[in-house]
Amino acid sequence: MRNPYEVLGVPRTADAAAIKSAFRKLAKKLHPDANQDDPKSAKRFAEINQAYEIIGDEKKRKAFDRGEIDAEGKPRFHGFEGFGAHPGAGAAGSPGGAHFENFSFGPEGFRRAGGGTGARGFGGGFEDILKDVFGAAAAGQGGRRTGFGGMPFEAEDMHQPAGRDVEAAVTITLAEAAKGGTRRVHLPTGKEVEVKIPAGLADGQQIRLKGQGLPGPGAVGDALVTVTIAPHPLFERDGANLRLDLPVTLYEAVLGGKVRVPTLDGAVELNIPPGTSSGRTFRLKGKGLPAKGATGDLLVGVRIVLPKEHDIELDELMRHWRDAKPYDPRRDME
Predict the structure, then answer these.
(1) What's in the GO CC field (predicted)?
(2) Is residue 3 assigned to a domain?
(3) 31 vs 167, which has greater pLDDT?
(4) What range does the domain containing 301 cover?
(5) Do the beta carbons of residue 1 and residue 72 sit within 8 Å?
(6) Tell me: the pLDDT tens digits for 149-183?
(7) pTM
(8) What is 111-161 written as a DSSP string?
(9) Are residues 138 and 170 in the same domain?
(10) Structural domain includes residue 71
């Protein structure tokens, strides 16, 4: 995946508000609901969601800027610090005087193939590393295992967990949160799995995938997938309800009429009564998000929008109206 800053078209110095604004503009432009005839828009929409998932989150953004994760949120491998990663460490005969020892693994467990002082940074902890990483495979006969240099140690000394959970994240659309669906998710283990998204999932909720974590001697951990719901270009979430800012013309507000209103299930008609003021809210029952025992509503707020072009006739009409029938909508504010 491309650099998330390039995907959203923002510099690395952009603040959180600028990043969110850039994402919302692109999401509105490339949302699949508005580009049903363009298959490329869905791929591009997924790309900007992935980019926002990285740099729209403060912790992930810092981790990406430090080079700890890549553009897909996967950890970057930086090697082990103990292997000569600090001044003074090196091969035999180097100024540091340290060298690496060779090890082999066979029926008798781990064996040292060469002598020496060992690599600096290991100290007495190297045997513990071998136990943690290779303990399950290095089991000997009779419940005994061989440790560093062939030294035996008892199986009960291996305090290794049964398995470890891993964490991943996925961003879904508002429609997927409402109706459910499936998504492919990359796990830190390297696997790519298909995750079922249940209808009514809340933002930040986790899905547990049994047995998709890291293995241990007795069991395998789980994968915890945190779900983020991407901002929608039209709807704002308010619990189980959705809010929509609906632009109407001046004559629709004054004279009333039927207007088309988008919902997650398709457009419906809303009857605007005559004399509707800007800011009035209409409730469409059951057009929100699924919730326990019920479904939320769609709250439609009216916003009167004047024509972009300057209209002389409208100016004259308003002057006549102002002089003939003046009124003060702010009189109760004093």
Answers:
(1) cytoplasm
(2) yes
(3) 167
(4) 235-333
(5) yes
(6) 444 444 444 444 567 888 999 999 999 988 899 99
(7) 0.52
(8) EE-S-SS--TTTGGGHHHHHHHHHTTTTB-GGGEEE-GGG-EEEGGG----
(9) no
(10) yes
| Alpha carbon separation from 181 to 31, 178, 185 (Å, rounded) | 17, 9, 13
Final residue of a domain: which of 177, 198, 230?
A: 230
| C-alpha span between 60 and 165 (Å, rounded) | 19
User: Residue 148 pLDDT more than 80?
Assistant: no
Q: What is the DSSP letter of 326?
A: -
Which two three-digit tokens encode residue 134?
A: 């290779």
Domain count, the chain: 4
Q: What are phi and psi of 223, to 5 degrees?
A: -110, 130
- What CATH number corresponds to the domain at position 185? 2.60.260.20
Task: Give CA–CA dist 145/153, Å, rounded.
Answer: 6
CA dihedral 192, 198, 199, 203 (to 10 degrees): -70
- Chain centroid to CA 25: 18
Question: For the chain, what is the total number of helices (H) and then of strands (E)?
Answer: 8, 19
User: Could you tell me if residue 152 is inside a domain?
Assistant: no
Dihedral of alpha carbons 62, 67, 73, 75, sign = negative
Pairwise CA distance, residues 148 & 117, whole Å: 13
Element (H, E) at 163: strand 163-164
Report helix, strand or coil for 175: helix
Distance, CA of 177 to CA of 198 (rounded, Å): 7
Beta-ladder partners of 259: 270
Chain length of the chain = 334
Question: 249 and 173 in one domain?
Answer: no
Rounded to whole angstroms, the Cα distance separating 242 from 102 reads 63
Place of tokens 């003046």: 326
Reading the block at residue 195, the tokens are 């995750």
Beta pairing, strands 152-154 & 206-209: unpaired
